[in-house]
Amino acid sequence: MKKPVLVLALGGNALLRRGERGTFEEQLSNLLRVAPSLLELSREYQLVVTHGNGPQVGNLYLQQESTSEAPPMPLHACVAMTQSLIGYLIQLAVNSVDPGARVAVVPTRVLVDPEDPAFRRPMKPIGPYYPEHLREALAARGWELVHVPGRGYRRVVPSPRPKRIVDIDVIRELLGRVDLVVAAGGGGIPVVERGGRLEGVDAVIDKDLASSLLARELGADILVILTDVEGVYLNYGRPDARLLTRLCASEAERLLSEGHFPPGTMGPKVEACVEFVRSGGRAAIGSLERALEVVRGVSGTLLENC
User: Is pLDDT of 128 > 90?
Assistant: First the structure.
């Protein structure tokens, strides 16, 4: 009998902890803490791991801008490069615990709609803050910039919704043949279809929405999104904050529409889980530190189609 399919979305805290610079050694050390849980889950499930890449893309941009001797790469290429880097880090961490574990990394393209409204209104901030004296030069590159009081200017890029996992057949073929598949990192490499061919576009796809789409296209049994909080809270950050241990999809949609879960934090995670459970699966959101318990339904927030 085939093992059930689990798509596990690692939050940024799997790679970087608060106050860290993001060195290779720091990221590997953090993943070594996660690796035993990944290996244990791989024995129970056909495991697909997704991850974020925000800080890594930002650091790559900084490296590119520190020299004029090497040509800069477009954003979609930077997403591809950080997918491979983080996949390599996961391979190292898992094989440090179990040298025989088979880890496959799939640089994953994700189709987006070139007419998505996000391309007309870029809102996703990436990279560092820039001072006023660089604003005109950056704008001359075609960059959209927003001013953040007290911080400076920051580039914003489109964040279109994912439409299709281009490399889904490759990922599906690997299930059951290896112990762990790493795919759709950073939300995937955004591509559009033009003239019968795929072209990369400068955008950033939300990793949680991409993870949900991946899980649905794989026919996964479970989608779990791990982050740095215990689960989904009502009134998070207030004295009356309350952890929701179980949440029906219809109730989650109502709370989203009322603005309870901000777009930049818990909102996309809840939306991603709702989309998945509407397709018939089970979803959960919880703490990276309690990954096994979240998957087994004894920690975090369980989302169901009820």
Answer: no
